[in-house]
Amino acid sequence: MVQIIQCEDGTQTVFSPQFQETYHSIKGAIQESSHVFLNAGLNHLLDQGYSTIRILEFGFGTGLNALLVLNLVKDLQNISIEYVGIEKYPLEKTEISRLSYHDEVNVHISDWLKLHEGNWCIGNFKGKVFHSDFNDFESDTKFDLVFHDAFSPNIQQEYWRSPFLEKVYEKMNRGGVLVTYCAQGEFRRELKRIGFTIESLPGPLGKREMTRATKL
Ligand SMILES: C[S@@+](CC[C@H](N)C(=O)[O-])C[C@H]1O[C@@H](n2cnc3c(N)ncnc32)[C@H](O)[C@@H]1O
What is the CA(42)–ligand 1 centre distance, in A? Predict the structure, then answer.
Protein backbone atom coordinates (compact mmCIF):
# COMPACT_ATOMS: atom_id res chain seq x y z
CA MET A 1 0.00 0.00 0.00
CA VAL A 2 1.17 3.50 -0.79
CA GLN A 3 0.53 6.62 1.26
CA ILE A 4 -1.23 9.70 -0.08
CA ILE A 5 0.35 12.84 1.26
CA GLN A 6 0.12 16.60 0.74
CA CYS A 7 2.72 18.65 -1.11
CA GLU A 8 3.76 22.07 0.15
CA ASP A 9 1.29 23.79 -2.23
CA GLY A 10 -1.63 21.68 -1.00
CA THR A 11 -1.77 19.30 -3.99
CA GLN A 12 -1.54 15.56 -3.36
CA THR A 13 1.20 13.11 -4.14
CA VAL A 14 1.94 9.49 -3.33
CA PHE A 15 4.73 8.11 -1.17
CA SER A 16 5.93 4.61 -1.95
CA PRO A 17 7.13 2.73 1.17
CA GLN A 18 8.61 0.12 -1.19
CA PHE A 19 10.87 2.64 -2.99
CA GLN A 20 11.02 5.22 -0.17
CA GLU A 21 10.29 8.05 -2.60
CA THR A 22 7.38 10.30 -3.57
CA TYR A 23 5.85 10.16 -7.04
CA HIS A 24 6.23 13.93 -7.51
CA SER A 25 8.17 16.83 -6.10
CA ILE A 26 7.05 17.61 -2.58
CA LYS A 27 6.93 21.28 -3.63
CA GLY A 28 3.87 20.62 -5.83
CA ALA A 29 2.73 17.69 -7.96
CA ILE A 30 0.65 19.47 -10.58
CA GLN A 31 3.16 22.28 -10.90
CA GLU A 32 5.99 19.80 -11.52
CA SER A 33 4.08 17.64 -13.99
CA SER A 34 2.79 20.64 -15.95
CA HIS A 35 6.22 22.21 -16.09
CA VAL A 36 8.23 19.14 -17.09
CA PHE A 37 5.87 17.03 -19.17
CA LEU A 38 3.36 19.47 -20.63
CA ASN A 39 5.27 22.70 -21.10
CA ALA A 40 8.70 21.31 -21.97
CA GLY A 41 7.28 18.25 -23.76
CA LEU A 42 3.84 18.33 -25.31
CA ASN A 43 3.64 22.11 -25.85
CA HIS A 44 7.11 22.04 -27.37
CA LEU A 45 5.93 19.57 -30.06
CA LEU A 46 2.64 21.40 -30.60
CA ASP A 47 4.63 24.62 -31.15
CA GLN A 48 6.55 22.82 -33.89
CA GLY A 49 3.29 22.03 -35.69
CA TYR A 50 2.83 18.36 -34.76
CA SER A 51 -0.83 17.34 -35.03
CA THR A 52 -0.57 13.61 -34.28
CA ILE A 53 1.61 12.78 -31.31
CA ARG A 54 2.42 9.38 -29.84
CA ILE A 55 3.43 9.58 -26.19
CA LEU A 56 5.15 6.86 -24.15
CA GLU A 57 5.26 7.24 -20.37
CA PHE A 58 7.56 5.25 -18.12
CA GLY A 59 5.74 5.20 -14.78
CA PHE A 60 1.99 5.85 -15.25
CA GLY A 61 1.43 5.91 -11.46
CA THR A 62 -1.42 8.23 -10.51
CA GLY A 63 -2.18 9.03 -14.16
CA LEU A 64 -1.57 12.72 -13.47
CA ASN A 65 0.48 13.23 -16.64
CA ALA A 66 -2.19 11.60 -18.81
CA LEU A 67 -4.85 13.74 -17.09
CA LEU A 68 -2.92 16.93 -17.84
CA VAL A 69 -2.55 15.87 -21.48
CA LEU A 70 -6.30 15.24 -21.68
CA ASN A 71 -7.01 18.62 -20.14
CA LEU A 72 -4.76 20.36 -22.66
CA VAL A 73 -5.96 18.63 -25.83
CA LYS A 74 -9.67 18.16 -25.14
CA ASP A 75 -10.47 21.48 -26.84
CA LEU A 76 -7.88 21.15 -29.64
CA GLN A 77 -9.91 19.30 -32.23
CA ASN A 78 -7.17 19.25 -34.89
CA ILE A 79 -4.77 17.41 -32.55
CA SER A 80 -4.75 13.68 -32.03
CA ILE A 81 -2.88 11.94 -29.20
CA GLU A 82 -2.05 8.27 -28.69
CA TYR A 83 -0.74 7.54 -25.21
CA VAL A 84 0.95 4.44 -23.82
CA GLY A 85 1.70 4.22 -20.13
CA ILE A 86 3.82 1.54 -18.48
CA GLU A 87 3.19 0.71 -14.85
CA LYS A 88 4.29 -2.37 -12.93
CA TYR A 89 2.68 -1.46 -9.61
CA PRO A 90 -0.78 -0.03 -10.42
CA LEU A 91 -2.52 1.84 -7.63
CA GLU A 92 -5.50 0.20 -5.93
CA LYS A 93 -8.97 1.55 -6.77
CA THR A 94 -9.33 2.78 -3.18
CA GLU A 95 -6.09 4.74 -3.55
CA ILE A 96 -7.18 6.30 -6.86
CA SER A 97 -10.50 7.30 -5.34
CA ARG A 98 -8.63 9.38 -2.75
CA LEU A 99 -6.85 11.46 -5.41
CA SER A 100 -8.62 14.64 -6.52
CA TYR A 101 -6.47 15.77 -9.46
CA HIS A 102 -9.46 15.78 -11.81
CA ASP A 103 -11.16 18.43 -9.64
CA GLU A 104 -8.09 20.61 -9.65
CA VAL A 105 -7.82 20.67 -13.45
CA ASN A 106 -11.55 20.54 -14.08
CA VAL A 107 -11.82 17.19 -15.89
CA HIS A 108 -14.99 15.19 -15.29
CA ILE A 109 -14.58 12.30 -12.85
CA SER A 110 -15.86 9.82 -15.46
CA ASP A 111 -12.93 10.71 -17.77
CA TRP A 112 -10.47 10.50 -14.88
CA LEU A 113 -11.75 6.99 -14.05
CA LYS A 114 -11.54 5.99 -17.74
CA LEU A 115 -7.81 6.74 -17.67
CA HIS A 116 -7.51 4.24 -14.82
CA GLU A 117 -9.42 1.52 -16.66
CA GLY A 118 -6.27 1.22 -18.75
CA ASN A 119 -7.77 1.52 -22.25
CA TRP A 120 -9.55 4.72 -23.25
CA CYS A 121 -10.74 6.76 -26.16
CA ILE A 122 -11.88 10.20 -25.04
CA GLY A 123 -12.45 12.29 -28.17
CA ASN A 124 -9.08 12.95 -29.74
CA PHE A 125 -7.18 11.25 -26.88
CA LYS A 126 -6.64 7.49 -27.02
CA GLY A 127 -4.55 5.48 -24.65
CA LYS A 128 -3.54 2.23 -23.01
CA VAL A 129 -1.69 1.31 -19.85
CA PHE A 130 0.46 -1.83 -19.81
CA HIS A 131 0.90 -3.35 -16.39
CA SER A 132 4.39 -4.60 -17.06
CA ASP A 133 7.97 -3.93 -16.16
CA PHE A 134 9.65 -1.11 -18.12
CA ASN A 135 12.15 -3.66 -19.44
CA ASP A 136 9.46 -5.96 -20.81
CA PHE A 137 7.65 -3.36 -22.91
CA GLU A 138 7.92 -4.18 -26.63
CA SER A 139 6.25 -2.27 -29.42
CA ASP A 140 6.59 -1.78 -33.17
CA THR A 141 5.12 1.70 -32.79
CA LYS A 142 7.62 4.54 -32.56
CA PHE A 143 6.95 7.48 -30.27
CA ASP A 144 7.32 11.26 -30.65
CA LEU A 145 7.38 12.08 -26.97
CA VAL A 146 8.69 10.12 -23.98
CA PHE A 147 7.74 11.04 -20.43
CA HIS A 148 10.59 9.52 -18.43
CA ASP A 149 9.13 9.42 -14.92
CA ALA A 150 10.79 6.50 -13.14
CA PHE A 151 11.97 6.93 -9.56
CA SER A 152 15.23 8.84 -9.27
CA PRO A 153 18.65 7.45 -10.23
CA ASN A 154 19.48 6.97 -6.53
CA ILE A 155 16.69 4.40 -6.34
CA GLN A 156 16.41 3.03 -9.90
CA GLN A 157 19.75 3.68 -11.57
CA GLU A 158 19.24 1.10 -14.33
CA TYR A 159 16.49 3.20 -15.96
CA TRP A 160 18.80 6.22 -16.22
CA ARG A 161 21.59 4.33 -17.99
CA SER A 162 22.13 2.06 -20.99
CA PRO A 163 21.08 -0.51 -22.07
CA PHE A 164 17.65 0.79 -20.99
CA LEU A 165 18.16 4.25 -22.53
CA GLU A 166 19.38 2.76 -25.82
CA LYS A 167 16.13 0.79 -26.02
CA VAL A 168 14.17 3.99 -25.41
CA TYR A 169 16.13 5.74 -28.22
CA GLU A 170 15.21 2.90 -30.59
CA LYS A 171 11.52 3.32 -29.73
CA MET A 172 11.52 7.02 -30.73
CA ASN A 173 10.90 8.76 -34.06
CA ARG A 174 13.48 11.20 -35.43
CA GLY A 175 12.64 14.65 -34.06
CA GLY A 176 11.09 13.02 -31.00
CA VAL A 177 11.86 14.27 -27.51
CA LEU A 178 12.31 12.74 -24.08
CA VAL A 179 11.53 14.95 -21.09
CA THR A 180 12.25 14.29 -17.45
CA TYR A 181 12.61 16.02 -14.10
CA CYS A 182 16.08 14.46 -13.75
CA ALA A 183 19.17 16.57 -14.44
CA GLN A 184 21.87 14.17 -13.24
CA GLY A 185 25.23 14.58 -15.03
CA GLU A 186 25.89 10.90 -15.69
CA PHE A 187 22.37 10.44 -17.08
CA ARG A 188 22.88 13.35 -19.49
CA ARG A 189 26.29 12.09 -20.57
CA GLU A 190 24.75 8.70 -21.30
CA LEU A 191 22.00 10.30 -23.40
CA LYS A 192 24.66 12.18 -25.40
CA ARG A 193 26.71 9.02 -25.95
CA ILE A 194 23.61 7.33 -27.37
CA GLY A 195 23.03 10.18 -29.84
CA PHE A 196 20.49 12.50 -28.18
CA THR A 197 20.91 16.27 -28.25
CA ILE A 198 20.51 17.61 -24.73
CA GLU A 199 18.91 20.80 -23.47
CA SER A 200 19.18 21.83 -19.88
CA LEU A 201 16.01 23.76 -19.04
CA PRO A 202 14.97 25.55 -15.85
CA GLY A 203 13.44 23.02 -13.48
CA PRO A 204 10.07 23.04 -11.72
CA LEU A 205 9.70 24.65 -8.26
CA GLY A 206 12.60 23.65 -6.03
CA LYS A 207 14.77 22.19 -8.84
CA ARG A 208 17.37 24.20 -10.71
CA GLU A 209 17.25 22.18 -13.93
CA MET A 210 15.39 19.52 -15.90
CA THR A 211 16.35 17.68 -19.09
CA ARG A 212 14.98 17.60 -22.60
CA ALA A 213 16.69 15.20 -25.03
CA THR A 214 15.94 15.22 -28.76
CA LYS A 215 16.57 12.40 -31.22
CA LEU A 216 17.64 14.37 -34.31
C1 LIG B 1 8.14 8.77 -9.86
S2 LIG B 1 6.70 7.73 -9.96
C3 LIG B 1 5.88 8.57 -11.28
C4 LIG B 1 4.43 8.37 -11.30
C5 LIG B 1 3.54 9.01 -12.34
N6 LIG B 1 4.16 9.50 -13.52
C7 LIG B 1 2.60 10.00 -11.71
O8 LIG B 1 2.53 11.15 -12.15
O9 LIG B 1 1.92 9.62 -10.77
C10 LIG B 1 7.41 6.27 -10.77
C11 LIG B 1 6.40 5.27 -11.24
O12 LIG B 1 7.09 4.19 -11.91
C13 LIG B 1 6.54 2.94 -11.50
N14 LIG B 1 7.60 1.93 -11.65
C15 LIG B 1 8.73 1.83 -10.90
N16 LIG B 1 9.51 0.84 -11.36
C17 LIG B 1 8.88 0.30 -12.43
C18 LIG B 1 9.22 -0.73 -13.34
N19 LIG B 1 10.38 -1.42 -13.22
N20 LIG B 1 8.38 -1.03 -14.33
C21 LIG B 1 7.20 -0.33 -14.46
N22 LIG B 1 6.81 0.66 -13.61
C23 LIG B 1 7.65 0.99 -12.61
C24 LIG B 1 6.15 3.18 -10.07
O25 LIG B 1 5.21 2.25 -9.60
C26 LIG B 1 5.60 4.60 -10.12
O27 LIG B 1 4.24 4.61 -10.44
Answer: 20
